[in-house]
Structure formats: structure tokens, C-alpha cells
Amino acid sequence: MNERAALTLTVLTGLALLVACEKSDVPGEGSGATSAAGTTEAPVIVPQVMSGLMPWLWSNFKDGSASALAEGVQNLHEVTGAATLDAPEDGALPDLTALALRDLSISPDPEPDRARGLYVVNSFSCTIEQLESILVDLDQADLYDDIYEDYDRDYTSNADAYSEGWTDTLEWDAEATVSSLLVRYTQQLRGGLRYLSGTERGPALVARSFMTEPAEIDGDASFDQLYVIEVFYERAAGEMVHVSGQWRDMDLGGGVDMDSDVMLALMVEGVLGRDERTAELCAERGDR
What we know:
Elements: H1 3-23, H2 50-60, H3 66-80, E1 89-93, E2 116-125, H4 128-135, H5 140-143, E3 148-155, H6 159-163, E4 169-179, E5 184-199, E6 202-211, E7 216-217, E8 222-236, E9 239-251, H7 261-286
Antiparallel strand pairs: 1-2, 2-9, 3-4, 4-5, 5-6, 5-7, 6-8, 8-9
């Protein structure tokens, strides 16, 4: 167990004991949480199907409890069949709702019905510690030089507190320029990472990011919206599971838009290509 997991476990154990002591004095206590006013709140219901899970994880990334998110990770593990996954799988996701985007600083106002949803489930060789070090690295352009022409990230929360295990959340703003054979664009991103220590699968990482405005894109193409939620955990020692959900509103011209199978294939290959590079980075860190 690493220092972050040990610290989090100690805190959670203390809180559990405190709650148990408080409940022992309350007659007729049910399974729901009790508010300061003494009323019993409804328990959190975590979806158990992919079409509900990924939007739920998106909406609950910031304010959802660690225990609820941990349940979401376990549900993902079961619904995707990740324990025996031997090849990548992908599928459609329902649209996000306006309610799911209401608290985000996005200009102009989001049009979630225009952003098509897709999930990808994949596995590769890595540990959670190796992956975390990659995700928090400021120099993403150096790590993923086949994707980024430039990448500039500024942390907007206390990065030292996160690295020392005092908080499980890290937030940032970034400007990234992506260049490929098909398109080149610059995007303004807002991202975050949550470290979950108490899942049935061991430590897990949940990451969320979105564009705060339409991307600056070359030619007549357009890239107006992007919303991404990702979950990482080890199904066995050194075997990383990556579940990626994204909703994208992009038109590359020539019929390559969100109704195109070509666009969906590009989205899937984008996730798998990044995973392949991440596995290489993990191997490099394992050799250190």
C-alpha cells in the first residue's frame, strides 16, 4: 500500500468509527444518511448499466462521495466484463443532459444534443502508481509528442497537497495544440483527477476534462464541444483497465462528422493509440 492509500484508509477508518458511534445513539437508524436537521436522506443509487454509468460518473466526478464513486468503479468492472477482457470494446453512449453541464464555465452555452457519445474499454500493462505519475506530469507534450504539438498546463488546485496525500483531487487548466495528418487545432481545456483508495479493485483514478470554448481549428473544419470522463484501475497486478467515455461535437468536412462511422473509428483509435503510448511510458517508469 502506498503512502496516499495508507493515509486515506486511516482517515476513512476514523470517520467510519465516528459515524458508527453516532448511529448507535440514534434509535431506528436506517441505511440512508442523516442530515444535520435529523432527517434521513435517500441513499445514492449508482447505475449498473453502461448507458447510465458513464453519464453518472461525469455528473458526480466533482461532488460525488468517494464511496459512491468506488461503487461506480465496481459496477463498471462488472458491466464491461473487464476481468476477462482480451480485446478492446466500444459502444455508443446517450447524450449528456443540459443539467449535467449546468455548473461548467463554457462559452457559448453547451448544446449537449450535438455531442455524440462513445465509450471504449481497453487494458494495458501499467500500475496505478506509474499511471498517476504520467497523468499529473506537466510536460504532456514531451510524453505524448505524437499527439501534442504544444501543451501548457497550470494547476488551479494545490498540487503539493495532492502529491502528499492530503487531498484526493487535483484540478488544472490547459491549452493544447493537437496536430495530425487530418487536422490541427488548439483547445482550451479544464481538467481534474480524483484518486480513490477504497474501491473493491484497489486504488483507482477518475479523470474528467472538457473544452471551455470551441477549438481554434484549421480550414473549414469545426470542433465545438468535448466532454471526457475516464476511469483507470488494475484488474490484477500490473494489468490496467481503462474505461473512456467521451462526447464530441466535431466536423472535419467531407462528410466526416458525428454521424460518420469514420469519425467514430477515429475517436476509438485515438483512445487506443494513447493507451499504447501510455503503456510504453509505464514500462519506462518500471525500468527506473
